[in-house]
Design goal:
about 90 residues, mainly beta, five-stranded antiparallel sheet, 1 helix
């Protein structure tokens, strides 16, 4: 099975810059960052995905029993994706 993330070039993407100081990003893969709250807890993950119209940001949470990521939402702005992980 091929996913759209398989089509991304093998480059190390720059860490997105967040406007909010409530979270920070820590690299977890070529296209993946952990979203860490100021308290140090992990809120979820931010993934860069290719779209024909530009770069999209996916807010995801790791589902421990299955070991798979669950999609929270997909956004044009990294800050919007991180905000979706706050609840």
């Amino acid at each position: 099975m091929t996913t759209i993330t398989d089509a991304l070039p093998a480059v190390l993407w720059e860490t997105p810059v967040l406007r909010s100081r409530a979270e920070r990003l820590e690299r977890a893969g070529d296209h993946l960052w952990r979203v860490i709250a100021a308290s140090g807890t992990i809120r979820g993950h931010l993934r860069v995905v290719a779209d024909p119209l530009g770069i999209r940001y996916r807010a995801e949470r790791l589902h421990l029993p299955s070991g798979a990521f669950r999609l929270v939402g997909e956004f044009w702005d990294a800050d919007d994706a991180v905000a979706a992980l706050r609840s």
